Amino acid sequence: MQTGEGWLYLATVIDCCTKEVIGYAMDDHYQTPLISRAIRNAARNRKLAKGAIFHSDRGSNYMSAEFGQTLKQHGLRRSSGRTGICYNNAMAESFFGALKNERVSRMTYLAREAARQDITRYIELWYNHRRLHSAVGYRPPREVHAEYSELRIVA
């Protein structure tokens, strides 16, 4: 996002089952440490299944040895789409489209911190808790996650 202080970049980790943003990080650069921090935040917020797949595009940060090491530390496997085919990363593209259409394109951010706080509120209070997703029966991601968690406890 463009701010009065320059760009603010957002890296996300989205649960394919629930559509919930389970980890994210923001900074004034889009380098490997940013996306690694998003993974660490996801691991802090959720117990990540051993061998779970992290899918991304073929950006150099996602293909780096440093990022591969971060995935390995958390027991995750790497998957990437074909070069230049946006459909291979449709879930991330959908989230960023929603963020832009529903929030960011309507705002003027004078400072990165203001953008960071607004985007955090969007993810935590709207997107994960209230926004309805057709792919999960027109329910919010957190509701789907809670239902899944209850089923795992009962089983």
Describe the protein's architecture and organization.
There is one protein chain. The chain is an alpha+beta fold and 155 residues long. It has a single domain (2-154), classed as Ribonuclease H-like superfamily/Ribonuclease H (Nucleotidyltransferase, domain 5, 2-Layer Sandwich), CATH 3.30.420.10. 45% of the residues lie in helices and 16% in strands. The protein has a two-stranded antiparallel sheet. The chain has a two-stranded antiparallel sheet with strand order 3-4. Strand 3 and strand 4 form a beta hairpin. Helix 1 packs parallel to helix 3 (65-73). The longest helix has 16 residues, at 112-127. The N and C termini lie far apart (43 Å). The model has no long low-confidence stretch (mean pLDDT 93).
Looking at the structure, the CATH topology is Nucleotidyltransferase, domain 5
Characterize the largest beta sheet: strand count, sense, and whether it forms a barrel: 2 strands, antiparallel
Q: What's the arrangement of strands in the largest beta sheet?
A: 1-2
Q: In CATH terms, what is the architecture?
A: 2-Layer Sandwich
Structural class: alpha+beta
How many helices? The count is 6
- Unreliable spans: none
Helix and strand succession?
Answer: EEEEHEHHEHHH
What percentage of amino acids are in beta strands?
A: 15-25%
How many distinct folded domains? 1
CATH superfamily: Ribonuclease H-like superfamily/Ribonuclease H
Q: What Rg do the Cα atoms give?
A: 16 Å
Distance between the termini: 43 Å
- Mean pLDDT across every amino acid position: 93
Q: Give the total of beta strands.
A: 6
Q: Please tell me what the overall shape is.
A: globular
Portion in helices:
40-55%
So what's the CATH class?
Alpha Beta
